[in-house]
Design brief:
This protein has a seven-stranded antiparallel sheet with strand order 2-1-7-6-5-4-3. By secondary structure, it is α+β, with helices and mostly antiparallel strands. It starts with a helix and ends with a helix. It is elongated. It contains three helices and seven strands, in the order αββαβββββα. The longest helix is centred in the N-terminal third of the chain and has 16 residues, at 2-17. The protein has a domain at 35-106 and 113-145.
Length: 175
């Protein structure tokens, strides 16, 4: 009987203590904020799709870091290099980048590879950061096709874009 009287006290104490306060997640933004962004990618898997040596040299665990500028007018469709990284020239096939959700398909080319590489990007974002996955599938004219999956994350590092090297050189030449 004594146990039955103490049980409600334990329940009340547990309910009132609250423990740790729940972490508040940053609200989803309508679009990504303009400015300078830094991205990092880590290859999570890489394999040949045609049983030939892949035309791109990569391995699980490879990491890369990149920079991209999101202009004010590009906030709902940022430059493709934000997701593709260095060495790719891409155009959007479709995209849905709104309300914290990120889904895009890009058609890319890369120097020294003849054919297309399609990138499927999915993830989530706030105004100043994003994270997700990128799956690259190649459609090359010869042997060496591959599928590569990566984790990607990015963060806004400055409210304004860094000057491009060409613009810096022109500015120094005029001075």
């Amino acid at each position: 009987m004594r146990f039955l009287m103490i049980l409600p006290l334990f329940a009340a104490t547990a309910a009132c203590s609250g423990g740790e306060a729940p972490k508040q997640e940053e609200e989803a933004a309508a679009s990504m904020e303009g400015g300078q962004w830094e991205t990092s990618q880590e290859v999570t898997s890489f394999r040949s799709t045609d049983k030939a040596t892949p035309a791109l040299k990569a391995a699980a665990g490879d990491r890369s870091v990149g920079q991209a500028c999101v202009e004010e007018g590009d906030k709902t469709k940022p430059p493709a290099e934000l997701f593709a990284g260095a060495g790719y020239e891409c155009k959007y096939k479709d995209s849905y980048i709104r309300g914290g959700r990120l889904n895009a398909t890009l058609e890319c080319e890369r120097d020294a590879l003849e054919g297309n590489i399609n990138l499927q990007v999915s993830g989530s974002y706030t105004g100043t950061s994003f994270e997700g996955t990128v799956t690259a599938t190649s459609f090359l004219s010869g042997d060496g096709d591959f599928v590569m999956a990566s984790k990607i994350s990015g963060r806004r590092t400055a409210p304004a874009c860094a000057p491009k090297a060409e613009e810096e050189a022109k500015g120094k030449a005029k001075a």
